[in-house]
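G., the chain you wanted modeled:
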Amino acid sequence: MPHTELDHTADILIRVWGRTLDELFSDAAAAMAAVMFEDRRDGGIERTFSLTADDPEALLHDLLSELLFLSEVEGIVFSDIKARVEGAVVYCTARGETFSPERHRGGTEIKGISYSGLRIINTDEGYQVDIIFDV
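Predicted structure as tokens:
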């Protein structure tokens, strides 16, 4: 798994790695979905969208916030999320299923994505970012 949970006093702190920005953004979205729901499947629901932001951190924040919004408002449990970053734009295709109270118990409700400490680092092996999910 290209992410790990780190200690945090009140919220959930996740460190994500990716060889490319596409991988980093996709894996960050997958990490958020894994925190929210333990059992996730592809139920044939697909959402595609694109977002624009001034910098990569804002782009990642906006991507995660949009997926959180879609999950909460449309009741979608995402299982497969692909992001493609081109300059200041991220293109996203997210697949999943309708939320079911019986199947989707467990997990943690995420209230928002924090900007605190959100900084994408380019390393010799690729990219790394720490993300705090407000719970």
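The radius of gyration is 14 Å.

Shout if anything looks off.
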